[in-house]
Amino acid sequence: MNNIIPPTRVHVHFDVDILKRFRIVSLIVGGLLIVAGIAGMAVPQFISALASVFLGWLLVTAGILSAYLAFLSHWRSMIAWLKPVLLVLIGALFLFYPVSGVLTLALLLTVYLMLDAYGSLGLAYELYPLRGWGWMTFNGICSLLLAALLIFAWPAGSAVLLGLYIGISLFIDGLALLFLGLSSRMKTAS
After folding, report:
1. Which in 79, 97, 110, 153 has the greatest CB count within 10 A?
2. Helix 16-42 vs helix 44-73: angle between axes, to the nearest 10 degrees?
3. What is the mean pLDDT of residues 3-13?
4. CA distance 135 to 120
5. Cα–chain-centroid distance for residue 4?
6. How far is 26 from 4, CA to CA, in rounded Å?
7. Do residues 116 and 136 lie in contact, with contact meaning Cβ atoms separated by under 8 Å?
């Protein structure tokens, strides 16, 4: 009468060369993200303003490039000019109103942290039989907690929290990649 199927272990085989390349890249990127995260936590207002201005310039540049493409290919079509005009206008708003840009980025960061939590937890689920899956779980839970805190503190603490959370998220992402790379080295060495 007992129809319960016992759990089975899944054995995943990876190419050793790919695993070695992943280990090296994850150690380098993890270290760089840790350094960037510490810088973000040290000067959060600067990181917030920098993020707003950077996004503004990125959008303006994308708008100019899109306008050039529209000019070359669809110069008579008004709909082809919609995207370049919107990109330039939104980028200009970020550049001319950086405080509002920081508030907007705080909301966008909340969405990013929720998606990062979903991605990290999904990756942890996929990595489950392998070493290092717990670090991805930790990363996902931390990203979810940061998103919740940012929602509750918005808009009053957006300038500080945006830079601080960018720094914390980068730091934890770096730790997760660093420990994942270290645990894969231990696995291949044995």
Report:
1. 110
2. 120
3. 62
4. 9
5. 40
6. 40
7. no
Q: Give 73-111 pLDDT, tens digit per residue.
A: 877 778 888 989 999 999 999 999 988 888 888 888 889
Structure tokens of 29?
């990127």
Q: Which residue has the tokens 């207002």?
A: 45
How far apart are alpha carbons 163 and 155 in whole angstroms? Answer: 14
Is residue 144 within 8 Å of residue 117, measured between CB atoms? yes
Enter the pTM of the model.
0.59
Phi, psi of 132, rounded to the nearest 5 degrees: 100, -5
Handedness of CA 56, 62, 67, 68 (dihedral sign): positive
CB atoms within 10 A of CB 188: 12
Chain position carrying tokens 């960061």: 109
Peptide bond into 155 cis (omega under 30): yes
